[in-house]
Amino acid sequence: MKNHYVLIDYENVQPKSLAVLNRHEFKVIIFVGANQAKIPFELASAIQALGSNAKYVKIGGNGSNALDFHIAFYIGQLAEKDPNAYFHIISKDKGFDPLINHLKERKIFAQREK
Question: Which domains does the chain have, with CATH numbers?
Fold first, then answer.
């Protein structure tokens, strides 16, 4: 069975709810920009309910695509440790599409969702 990782580009997409994840075993990582200081209570509560299957990554600096590079780095690390993984990138940024195509060419399962 594949492990499913949900990597959320919180600078780009701010989900109001994570209810769609309730019936599945997902590992969630929310990437938060350096200048983002607040997370809505509903989202923080939903993340907390996922326990050890969820975490935040706060980006330490600013720059064009800084958060995107962090997501790409984490996918690389996770794919190395878990070659059977499936990656769900939650972002409106079409810049992830070439990365996803590259991953698919290497038989790494990935998709971008808005």
Answer: 4-113 (3.40.50)
